[in-house]
Design brief:
Oligomer: single chain
Shape: globular
Strand order of the largest sheet: 1-2-3-4-5-6-7-8-9
Helix content: 10-25%
Number of domains: 1
């Protein structure tokens, strides 16, 4: 009986130790500069992000999405790429701003707010900590929406609503104004951060899907100014990207 009591006490202490570690200041410190991790063959499975879950669009949206992808591929072959946010000097918005090529991002933790700044196009998100989320119909639609966050052990959970439909989602997917983005950020190691992103949209998606971004810490990195000053490209009547040369249009 005594041995059983000792085992129970040791088990409780072990669980308490794990919980204390998960809620320690170090585990909850995601401040700093981070760069997207490379994947592919040879990636360490212990820290590599897991594969994305299947994306299932509702039939009417799936048909339009595939038609657009086909038209884009054909336009590229003709040397007439279609407009993208980068070409038009528009922000990527959420969730695509969280990974643009290999450009880093910076996370700043202050009392009541976590601020996320991307180097590409200097996009800024503000996540209000321990505040209730606004009803989705009360959020003015924008590129970044309204984000609130809370700590769940060692995981920072972010809820975002209010992304306007013109802002393309993950993999250029369409979405409605009902889209909700849930992120779960946590340190896999002291220098590796995972951002698990789940996208729900009852209008466009048959079911939610999830993908995970991985980032490596960049110690002592100073963010570089990245401003889009493109005023040469424009979109013609057929939606094709054209270039102004010497005041003319081609």
């Amino acid at each position: 009986m005594a041995a059983t009591r000792v085992a129970i006490v040791l088990g409780v202490l072990a669980i308490a130790g794990v919980m204390a570690e998960a809620q320690s200041p170090a585990a909850r410190n995601i401040s700093g500069a981070w760069v997207p991790m490379g994947g592919g063959r040879g990636a360490d499975p212990k820290i590599a992000p897991p594969p994305a879950t299947p994306i299932v669009l509702k039939p009417e949206y799936a048909k339009a999405y595939e038609a657009r992808r086909t038209a884009e591929a054909e336009a590229v072959k003709r040397g007439e790429p279609v407009a993208t946010p980068a070409i038009l000097c528009l922000p990527y918005g959420m969730p695509r701003m969280m990974t643009v090529a290999s450009y880093p991002l910076e996370i700043l933790q202050t009392a009541g707010q976590v601020t996320i700044i991307t180097e590409a196009f200097s996009e800024v998100r503000r996540v209000y900590v321990d505040q209730p989320q606004l009803p989705i119909d009360e959020v003015p639609p924008g590129f970044y929406g309204h984000s609130v966050g809370r700590w769940d052990g060692d995981t920072f959970v972010i809820d975002t609503v209010g992304i306007k439909p013109s802002v393309l989602s993950y993999n250029m997917l369409p979405h409605s104004d009902r889209m909700r983005i849930t992120e779960r950020m946590r340190l896999v190691t002291p220098d590796v951060l995972h951002d698990q992103i789940t996208i729900e949209d009852p209008v466009v998606l048959e079911k939610p899907f999830t993908y995970t971004l991985g980032f490596r810490r960049l110690p002592d990195y100073k963010m570089v100014e990245f401003v889009c000053e493109n005023n040469r490209e424009y979109i013609d009547e057929q939606g094709r990207v054209r270039m102004r040369v010497g005041g003319s249009q081609k």
